[in-house]
Amino acid sequence: MPVDHDLGSARRLTTPYEGLVARGWDPDAPIPGPLSLHRARVPADWVDYNDHMTESAYLHVVGDGADAFFRFFGIDEAYRAAGHSLFTAETHLHHLAEAAVDDELRVDLRLLDVDAKRLHVFHEVHNESTERLAATAEQLLLHVDTRAGRVTPLPDHLLTRLRSIRAAHARLPVPAAVGHVMQIPHATDGA
Q: Could you tell me where the DSSP H helices lie in the chain?
């Protein structure tokens, strides 16, 4: 029998970075690879009936990591108020190990590729409490003119920064999960 949930108390999700101004960009500063820009402690409301962090909470952590990355290279509330933002077009999330209440998480991000309108990023969610890789997420992000409602090129100064980050991350190995196709493998012997 379906359960009727009270959604009247729903509120807008926020990230810990909302309201923070994008940090200043120093073109001569070394760019770490990968970038470790977000950490979180698992609160009780992220845990489900199996006593593990829920799928949606993993995506929430990855989203917060992406938001920290946006501020790293120059996108913040002022940028969005001016009519531009990054939207997620696709996410592939791999659950690798459990996380529980009070576990400490660190999100590492690498920029795999960038062009005038798109970013291809990869996140690793490390459970520092268990010293295990808890999840990975691969995302395709689109630069959008929010007033016109369409994908549009990044401004030159942001594209230049992103190309610098991409160059720094190009030396990192491409994770095995990148481009992974979800499927059920079938035996070729007809079994």
A: 55-73, 77-81, 156-169
**Rounded distance between C-alpha atoms, residue 54 and residue 100, angstroms:** 10
Assigned token pair, 34: 């990968």
Nearest 5°: the CA angle 132, 73, 62 is: 30
Predicted confidence (pLDDT) per residue in 27-55, tens digit? 999 999 999 999 999 999 999 999 999 99
State the pTM of this model: 0.90
Buried-state track 47-74, b at ≥16 Cβ within 10 A, e below 16: beeeebbeeebbebbbbbbbbbbbbbbb
Residue 40 lies in a domain: yes
Phi and psi, residue 85, nearest 5°: -160, 175
Tell me if 2 is assigned to some domain: no
66: left (phi over 0), alpha (psi -120 to 50) or beta: alpha
The number of folded domains in the chain is 1
